[in-house]
Structure formats: structure tokens, C-alpha cells
Amino acid sequence: MRTLYTLALLLALGLAACAANDPPADLPFGTSFSIAVIPDTQNYVDYRHQRAQGFVLNGQDLFIAQMQDIAARDEVVFVAAVGDVWQHSSKLVDAEHAARGRGAIDNPFLPGLAPSPYTQSVEIPGAIEGYRILAASGKPFGVAPGNHDYDAFWSVRGFPPRTDLPREDLEPMKGDLGIIHVGGLDNFRSVFGNDSEFFAGKAWYVDSFRGGANAAQVFSAGSYRFLHITLEMSPGDPVLRWASSVIEAHPGYPTIITTHDYLNARGERRAYPIIDLALGDPGYHNDAETLWKELISAYDQVFMVLCGHHHGQSLRVENNRYGNPVYQVLADFQGRGQAGIDAGAPDDGQVVGLGDGWYRLMHFDLASETVTVETWSSHYRRLSDDMPSYADWYRDYEQPGMSDEDFYAADAFTLELSGFRKRFKPASD
């Protein structure tokens, strides 16, 4: 059930659908290769989703199986993770935000924001175990921090919840619950920092900012040298300046940017109102439109953006200021909980999301200038378009109102890389 997406079709559907550091020559050249994209994984390693806490299965087992599956794929030359690696924070508010008066307020509607002692004893070690499998494969990879990866997670002062309304009348998408903010990336840097076990000394890890909260990697494939940049959530101006300098230091490299919050499930560059960092802390964060205008569209090398955070999937193809297409792709499957139901969890309308092993495979064929996108479950060992129950399991939660055909097409499609070989010169030339 593959669909060939073109810009005209996307618009018709209404979808807002060499250098100073040369990469090592230890990765294959040729016309075909694949990139794996790991969606939000926090529910796998969440301490509450393990048998030790009374859950029906160990979510961690699904995470390990996913990493083993990716590591074993010879065709995968690079792995991009969109963030939310683990679930819980470890402190209420970080020191920097507290010093600026951006501290926490009480919010009776969001009791789950409290830090957990299990973050550093269960969840982060579980994430490390999985990424060690990937690292052992030798594949280069990049991880963007998501909101759950920050040290602190709180209801921010200045945006109180609507306590004047009955609970049943509150509308989260209108900001009635207030705004959640995040701060501190010490936990993230301890695992994925520039001096971490995963990146220290790696020739393909070419630059970083703020200790690895933002980072750049290079890889060689398809007769090209690619640049991949991970950005923190809703990156501020200093981050955008750093990313610009990295792109300028790698002229001609086809560039992919991965960041956590960028597209929503309707293909819009719009944040959840309840966690809009640019609104909650203006001057320190930029929204997705600013990221598009000031960085992504401003550099013709950037041809693809990968993101997560918003449950579901979407695709937006839009020309940059040079008239060339940028392929912006959302995939976040964390709400999928059929694996728990299969193991005996009650199917009572309150499905416990895990992810069910689903992740994206992007198969590049630069001879035909196409990318075939597949959605594969390492748990079910099936592609999305090979599962008759796929839409029944997931559509109503992720894309309510979408037809079965369109839902299958949203997770299995082909992108036309219009003019890629003209736009980028092969490294072997």
C-alpha cells in the first residue's frame, strides 16, 4: 500500500504535508543505503512498565529487541533518534531557571510532574543498555534530547491552570492546564555528551554545543558525505548560530536535522499548547516556524528534518528559500500499546502506550532519487502495510477520522528527491 508523495499531492490533501572534518572512509559508497529513525522510547524504559512494578511485561525487553534489530541491519548506515529517551525527571526545577524566576507553581491537574527516584536507577541505565547494543554495531548515530530527557519538568510560573473551570470543562489544547517547562540537561549529557562512551573519540562525531546537548555527525553513503545535526528542543538563538557554523564548515554536504518538537500530526509546525517552550520562556527558545525560517530554509544543504514528540505521523514537503524541497517527517509511536494487551493488560480504553517495537526505515536510492519509507515493528516482525489489523489498532488514537487507506499510506510511502543529484555533488567526483 505504498503511496508516491509529491508536493502537489501533499498540498492538495492539505498536509502542511572538502570540509574541515572529513568523515572516515569506513562506510559503504553506492547508490542505495538506509537510515533508521528511532521514535520516542520513554515508555519502554519507564519504570512503571516493567514486571518489577507489576506490569504485564517488561517494556525494556521491547526496547532492547528494537536496538538489536537495528544493529543487525547491514543496510543501515546511520541511526537518528528523535528524543524522549527516558520518561521521568530527576529534579523539580534546575538551578538556571530558578535563578531567572522561571520556577514551578502548584498545578493540581498535573501531579505526574514530580521527579522520580527511578529515573537514574532504572530508566537511564535501561537506555544505556540499549544504546550500547547500537554502539557495538559500529553504526554512527545521533540523539536529540526530548522534553522527558531534561533534568526537570514543571508547571511554569506565569502560566497558571484554569482553576475557575470544572475539571471536565478544561481543554488542554487551549492551554487550560497551564504550560509545562523543562530545564537542565545534565542527565542527558551524562549519557550522550561529547565525552560520553558513545561519542568520545569517534571520527564521525564532528562537533557539539553545550557539552553535547546539540551535536553533529557525518557519514558516507550513496557516493555522498552526509551531515546530521541534532538540536535540543525548541532551540534558542545561540544553538541556531552554532548549527549554522557547522553547516558552513561542511559545504556541499546533504544535511539532515533531527529535533524533538517540530511537526504535529497534522503536518503543522506548531507546539502542543501545554508544552510550548517558546511561549513559556521567550528569548531562550524558538518555535518551529523560526527554526524553519532562520536555519532550515536558510541553508540549501538542509534537505530533510526528522522529529517526534507529537503522537502519530505526518509529512510536510516545502521549498526552501532557494526553491528546493525540504522533506519534514514526524514519527512518534509511543502511544501504541497492543503488545501490552497481547500480554494480558486490560483493553478498557485506557491502553498503556509502549511503542510496540515500531520504528522507521528510510531506504535511499540515489540512482532513482527516491526514499522509500517503511514502518517496521521489531516486536511483531512485520511491516505496517503487511498487518491487516494495523489501522484497527492505532488509527483512532493517532489519526482519528483518517481512512484505513490513508493511515496505511502515512506509514509506508515514497519520497521523490527531486533534483538531488543536481543539488548535491557526489563525494567521489
Feature tags:
globular; 17 strands; seven-stranded mixed sheet; 23% strand; disordered N terminus
**Which regions contain 5 or more consecutive residues with pLDDT less than 50?**
1-28
The helix/strand order is EHEHHEHHEEEHEEEHEHHEEEHEEEHHEH
Number of domains: 1
Distance between the termini: 37 Å
Mean of the pLDDT scores? 91
- Please report the total strand number as a whole number: 17
Q: Which bin fits the share of residues in helices?
A: 10-25%
The percent range for strand residues is 15-25%
Q: Name the CATH superfamily classification.
A: Metallo-dependent phosphatases
Overall description:
- There is one protein chain.
- With 429 residues, the protein is α/β, with parallel strands linked by helices.
- It has one domain: Purple Acid Phosphatase, chain A, domain 2 (4-Layer Sandwich), CATH 3.60.21.10.
- It has helices at 7-13, 42-45, 59-71, 95-99, 118-136, 186-192, 237-249, 277-280, 288-296, 338-342, 390-398, 404-410, 420-423, and strands spanning 3-5, 32-38, 76-81, 141-143, 152-155, 180-183, 205-209, 214-221, 224-231, 255-259, 302-307, 312-319, 325-332, 358-365, 370-377, 382-383, 413-416.
- Strands 1, 2, 3, 4, 14, 15, 16 and 17 form an eight-stranded mixed sheet that branches. A seven-stranded mixed sheet has the order 7-8-9-10-11-13-12, covered by helices on one side. Strands 5-6 form a two-stranded antiparallel sheet.
- Strand 12 (312-319) and strand 13 (325-332) form a beta hairpin.
- Helix 3 (59-71) runs parallel beside helix 5.
- The longest helix has 19 residues, at 118-136.
- The two termini are 37 Å apart.
- The relative contact order is 0.16.
